[in-house]
Structures are given as structure tokens and as C-alpha cells.
Amino acid sequence: MLAKARERMPPSAALPGGLVVQPKFDGYRTLVFTPWPAPGPVLIQSRRGSMIQARFPDLAAAAEALPDGWVLDGEMVVWAGEELSFASLQRRASAGGRTAARLAEALPAHFIAFDVLQADGVELLRRPYAERRATLEELFTGHGLTAPWTLCPETRDPATAREWLASWTRVPGVEGLVVKGLRQRYLPGTRGWYKIRRRDTAEGIVGAVTGTLRRPQSVLLGRYDREGVLRLVARSTPLHPEAVQDIAARLSPARPGHPWEGTRFTTSWGSRTPLEVVLVEPDLVAEMAVDTAQVHGAWRHPARFARLREDMTPDEVTEFDEGSGPGGQDGRLMGPE
């Protein structure tokens, strides 16, 4: 079951049974299957359907201690100190064999459980969420589960939810809220929940567009690093018609020697599908609304174009900060989860 984006909290009657709110963590959506009937292997399935237990042998080993016949839905994360590290999680997901075993020791995976789809071999998809949650809580208390297992916090209090959105999202790895209905059934593949991301504003330099100079469809934004290299930090969502006119009137074709000449761009984060872009002279500054999901200085999710900042020059834009490693220089773009 998936979530559709909203800008703000929905009314209490928006979902069956009233609302319950959970933090939205920036990790890998994952299902954990314990064998049924036993004996059998533990399976870990990604949102896209890939079986990834070989890449996370530590979590698979921990799941062997769970009772048989359970299916847990949740978010797989990796901690780096007191923060969640999506970059470290990506390293884990791309490693196999001996490297996977080595990284399991250096960067252990954790699982934040927020739903249960099967318990003791009994399917729970048609049960209301409140009942499934009670079953999940019984699993944690009855078996004394600790790390790498975490029960996702939740609240029914709107004031607490607003506080979470304002304060918890300041921590890297917490990007917003997920809103569910207490009487909702679990509908696989359906966007029946809501997600609300915290959005802040930031500035970037327009280095390229999709579409044409006369009718740009989206903008690609960069920031200069300490060496004066323009690094890709975001791609916008599709532009509104009024923004198309405003931007098109101010774009200039790129002159020879553009910083992104020869750069390969792709359609979304982690994708290999090429993205055709038109390079432009990097002399415009745009303000964008962004969420908190960043990797190596670049936003993974599309930014929302807010306006051109004609009061700013490119050298006034915040310097690129790559964080824990290199990023943004290979033209990989941010896309929806």
C-alpha cells in the first residue's frame, strides 16, 4: 500500500475511522517474510519486487529469530552516528558477496516496522489498520524485540503530528509524515494513505532545461563548489504555464565551455534512462521548494520551482556542500520514490 502526496494534514474524516500519523523515514520500503510453512528461508523484498536478503545478510539473520509465518511492512534504514544515512543504505543495496558481509558489520541495517500483513500464517490484509497495529505491537512486546527492529511511532493527536513535522524533520533521514485511517484495509499497490513532506526554500542556478528554450518544461539547478565547479543539485517538477513564460523570456543559450558540456543526465535518481536537456547560460537564480531528502548535496526528489530571484546573482547562491561524499557531478537526477 502506498501514499499520495498532500501539502497539509487532511481533515479527520478524510480516511476511514479517523487519522493516525507516523513519521516518514527516508529509507528503503521493504517487506520481511518469515517462512511459512517452516522450515524455509527468510525473504526480504524491495518495493520493486526484488529479493534482496543476500545484500542484507545481517537483517535476514536477525529475522530468523522472529516467529514463523509473519510478513512485516516497513522501512529499512542505516544509521551513521545519530543520523540516518541514505548514502550508506545505497552502498549496502549495491553490494554482494564478501562486500555485503563486510558492510553488514560496518553499516548494519535496521528495520522500522509500521504494518503487518500476515501473522502466524494468517493473512491480515482485510483487517482494519487499528487491529493490524495491535498485532504488530503484540509481536514487539511478546518477543521483546530490540535492534535491529524498531516499532514505528505513531500518534492520533494533530498537535503532536504538527510538532513532529516541524521538529523531527530537522534530523536527516526523517522527511515528513504518513497519514493512515484507523479502519483502513491494506490494499497492495493502492495509494490509499497520505504523505506530507516538510518543504523549505533554497536557491539554485539554472544550468539547463528540459523541453526547449522557448517552452522549458523543467529546470535543472546547480550550485558552485569550492573549486568553482557547477554541481547539479536538483531538477524541478513540471513548470506551471506562467513560470514557463517567465523563464523562457530570460533564458540565454549556453556559450561554449558550459560547465555541464558532456554531462550525462538521467530521468530520475538511480535511473539509467537518458534525459535530453538543453544547456543554458548559468546566469539565472531560481528559488525552489525542497524537502529534506538529500544525498551528497543533491535533492533526491524533484524540487518545486517557486520564482526567479532577480535580486540575486549566481555568486550569491549558497555554496555546494557535498556532505559525506561526492555527488551531483554525473548528471543523476532526483525522482519520485
Overview of the molecule:
With 337 residues, this protein is α+β, with helices and mostly antiparallel strands. The chain folds into 2 domains: 2-197, DNA ligase/mRNA capping enzyme (D-amino Acid Aminotransferase, Chain A, domain 1), CATH 3.30.470.30; 200-316, Beta Barrel (OB fold (Dihydrolipoamide Acetyltransferase, E2P)), CATH 2.40.50. Helices cover 18% and strands 32% of the residues. The protein is built from 6 helices and 19 strands. Strands 3, 4, 5, 6, 7, 8 and 9 form a 7-stranded mixed beta sheet that branches. The longest helix is centred in the middle third of the chain and has 15 residues, at 129-143. The two termini are 13 Å apart.
SS-based class: alpha+beta
CATH class of the largest domain: Alpha Beta
CATH topology of the largest domain: D-amino Acid Aminotransferase, Chain A, domain 1
Pick out the low-confidence regions: 323-337
CATH superfamily name of the largest domain? DNA ligase/mRNA capping enzyme
Helix content: 10-25%
Assembly context of the chains: single chain
Number of strands: 19
In CATH, the architecture of the largest domain is 2-Layer Sandwich
Q: Give the amount of beta strand, in percent.
A: 25-35%
Work out the helix count: 6
In total, the number of domains comes to 2
Rg calculated over all Cα atoms = 22 Å
Q: What is the straight-line distance between the termini?
A: 13 Å
Largest sheet properties: 7 strands, mixed
Order of helices and strands: EEEEHEEHHEEHEHEEEEEHEEEEE
